[in-house]
C-alpha cells in the first residue's frame, strides 16, 4: 500500500488538521470531523450541511464557504458520520432560518442524517433534507436502496447554496435543491481501483485490460466489467447511459467531467473534449462546465460525468459568487 | 497501460481540444499547443509567456488568464515546445510593452525559449526571460545543467503576473520574477511512477516498500531510493532539504504542498498538516498556502513541497486578483 499517510487510523484527523492549517476561512474540529464556515452561524440565513464518508475530497469540506455549504461532517474513510456529529454541525451553523441537509443516497448517510434531523428538531431547529441519487449506473447497490448519490451533489450544494446566500427561505432552498437533484444524472468508469487505508487491499481487482463501467465512488460494482477502450468510447458509454435515463436533446446543460482521484488532469481534458462533442451530437447545449477532481474515490483512476439539465434561473445561481477551498465562482 | 486516452500520439491535441471547449476565456490552438488569453494582446501591458512539455497540468495552460500568464505553449508529453511555437505565442500576446518568458530550467526549454526570444526580437518585440531552478534535490540531472525548475514556477507566474497586470514595465516585471525565483525552493518525493503514453512503460520502477526522495517532475532520478515511511517523515525530509539550502527561520513564507497527479487530496492535506508543523518548528511563519495538484507528473503518486520566502510586497502580489482555469485569487 503506497500511501502518503501516517497511520491508517489517523488518516481523517490528520487530513482535517491539514485543512485547518491551510484554510483560516474554516473552523475545523479534527476530532469530530465537523468543518464549519468561520463566520457561522449567519443570522437569518438558511444553512446548508452536508457530509459523508471521507475519501471523496474535496467533497464535502472543500465546498464549505460563502455561497455553498455552511458545514460539512467527515466520517471515517467511506463511512458515514455519526448522528451526534451531524447534529453538532447543524447546531453550529443554524442562524435561526433553518438548516438544509444535503445527503448522498447511501443507507448509512440517509439514516444518520435523519436521526440528526430529529435530534435537531428536538432542539428547536427546523431541518429539511434533500437526498441526491443521481447515479444512473445501478438501481440498488452495495450500500444503497435506490440509486447512489455522486457528482450531482456538487450541483445541489452550489446552486442551493447560492439560493440560501441570496436570502431564500428554507422551503425555497429545499425546493431548489430537490429540483437540481432531479435534474442531475451521473455515470462513472474505473480504470484502476483504490485502497482504503484501514483495509490495505484494493476495493476490487481489474485485469490489465479491463475497466468497470458504472462504478460507484467507493469502488462498489457497476454495470459491467468490460475491455479497455479509447477515452472517446468510454465517454460515449457514460453519456449514453445518462441520456437514456434523462434525455438531453434540446436542453441547456451544466457538465462536470470529474477525475476520480488518480487520473491526471491531462486525461480529464481528453475526456471533456469527447463529452463536449458527445453532448452536442445529442442535441444538448453545454452552458457551463467544470473539469477536475471534485468528487473522488481516493486514488481510483477513472472518471465520472455528471450532466445537469439547467434553466436560466439555475444557471444564474450556478454563476453566483462562491468562495470555498475547492470551488470559487462569480465575478471578481 | 491504464490511461483515459484515445491514441498516444493524440494525447496533447485531444487535451487541448478539451481545454478549448471548457474555457471560453482561452484561445486554444490544439494543433500548435499555443494557449492564449482570449483578450490578448493587451495594449501596453507586459505579457507573460511560459510553456514546456505537457504532462504537468494544470501547469502551464491552466494558469493563463488575467493576473497570471498571457500565453502558454504546450509541447508533447515531457518534451519542450519548439521555438516557432514559442515565437507564435510571444507574437500573439505582445501588446507593445514587451514579453517575459518564464522558463523552467530544462535544457530543451532553455534553448528553445532562447531561440524564440531571438526570433521575437528580430520582429521588434522586446523579450526578457527568467529561468526557474528551484528544485534543491540535485545539482544537475537527466535533463538539466543546474537545478531543475518545478513548483517555484507557479509562484513566479502568479507574482510576476500580478506585477504585469498592475502595469509594471518589463524590466520591473522581470526583476520581480527573478526575485521570486531566487526565493523559491522545492523538493519532491515519489511513491509510484508515471507512464508516458508514447512509451507505454513506467519512467522508473519502485519496489512496493520503496520511495524516491528528490524525484524530478519527469520521473528523473532524485537523491536517493529509500524505504517507505510515514507522511510526517517524508515531509520532514523535504523540509530539511529546503531549509538546508535556504533557511526559513524568521521568514514569512508562502507554501505549496503539491500532489503529483496520482495522490488523493486527502493525502495532500495530511502532508500539509506535517508541513505546517515542520515549518513552524523551524521558525518560519506561513502567511499563505496552497494545497492541491498544481504541478504534476501525469499519474505519479507523491508530493512536492515548494517554499517561497516572501515579503509584504510579494505577498500583496500573491493576493492580487487572478482568474485562470486552475487558480483564482483575490477579493470578490
Automatic annotation (TrEMBL), chains A, B:
Stretches that traverse the bilayer: none
Q: Where would I find the DhaK domain in this sequence? A: 7-327
Against InterPro entries, the record matches this protein to: DhaK_1, DhaK_dom, Dihydroxyacetone_Kinase
Keyword Lipoprotein annotated:
no
Q: Does the keyword Transferase apply?
A: yes
Q: Under which main EC class is this enzyme filed?
A: transferase
One Pfam family this chain carries? Dak1
What GO terms are given for molecular function?
A: phosphoenolpyruvate-glycerone phosphotransferase activity
UniProt keyword terms in alphabetical order:
Kinase, Transferase
Q: What is its EC number?
A: 2.7.1.121
Cite the PANTHER family for this sequence.
Answer: TRIOKINASE/FMN CYCLASE (PTHR28629), TRIOKINASE_FMN CYCLASE (PTHR28629:SF4)
Q: Which NCBIfam families match?
A: dhaK1 (TIGR02363)
Q: What is the name of the protein in this document?
A: Dihydroxyacetone kinase subunit DhaK
Q: Which organism is it from?
A: Actinomadura parmotrematis
Amino acid at each position: 500500500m503506497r500511501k502518503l499517510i501516517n497511520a491508517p487510523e489517523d488518516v481523517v484527523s490528520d487530513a482535517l488538521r491539514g485543512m485547518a492549517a491551510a484554510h483560516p476561512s474554516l473552523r475545523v474540529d479534527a476530532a469530530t470531523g465537523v468543518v464549519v464556515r468561520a463566520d457561522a452561524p449567519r443570522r437569518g440565513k438558511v444553512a446548508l450541511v452536508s457530509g459523508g464518508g471521507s475519501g471523496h475530497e474535496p467533497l464535502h469540506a472543500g465546498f464549505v464557504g460563502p455561497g455553498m455549504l455552511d458545514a460539512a461532517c467527515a466520517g471515517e474513510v467511506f463511512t458515514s458520520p455519526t448522528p451526534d456529529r451531524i447534529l453538532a454541525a447543524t447546531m453550529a451553523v443554524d442562524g435561526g432560518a433553518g438548516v438544509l441537509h444535503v445527503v448522498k443516497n447511501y443507507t448509512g448517510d440517509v439514516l444518520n442524517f435523519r436521526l440528526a434531523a430529529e435530534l435537531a428538531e428536538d432542539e428547536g431547529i427546523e431541518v429539511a433534507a434533500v437526498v441526491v441519487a443521481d447515479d444512473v449506473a445501478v438501481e440498488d447497490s452495495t450500500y444503497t436502496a435506490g440509486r447512489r448519490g455522486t457528482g450531482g451533489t456538487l450541483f445541489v450544494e452550489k446552486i442551493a447554496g447560492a439560493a440560501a446566500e441570496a436570502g431564500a427561505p428554507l422551503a425555497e432552498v429545499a425546493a431548489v435543491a430537490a429540483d437540481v437533484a432531479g435534474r442531475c444524472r451521473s455515470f462513472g468508469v474505473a480504470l484502476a481501483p483504490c485502497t482504503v487505508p484501514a483495509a490495505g487491499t484494493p476495493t476490487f481487482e481489474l485485469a490489465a485490460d479491463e475497466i468497470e463501467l458504472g462504478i460507484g465512488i467507493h469502488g462498489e460494482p457497476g454495470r459491467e466489467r468490460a475491455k479497455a477502450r479509447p477515452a472517446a468510447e468510454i465517454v460515449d458509454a457514460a453519456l449514453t447511459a445518462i441520456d437514456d435515463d434523462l434525455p438531453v436533446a434540446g436542453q441547456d446543460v451544466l457538465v462536470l467531467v470529474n477525475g476520480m482521484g488518480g487520473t491526471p488532469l491531462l486525461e480529464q481534458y481528453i475526456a471533456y473534449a469527447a463529452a463536449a462533442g458527445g453532448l452536442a451530437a445529442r442535441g444538448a447545449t453545454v452552458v457551463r462546465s467544470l473539469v477536475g477532481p471534485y468528487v473522488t474515490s481516493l486514488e481510483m483512476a477513472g472518471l465520472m460525468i455528471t450532466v445537469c439539465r439547467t434553466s436560466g434561473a439555475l444557471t444564474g445561481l450556478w454563476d453566483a459568487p462562491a468562495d470555498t477551498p475547492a470551488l470559487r465562482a462569480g465575478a471578481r
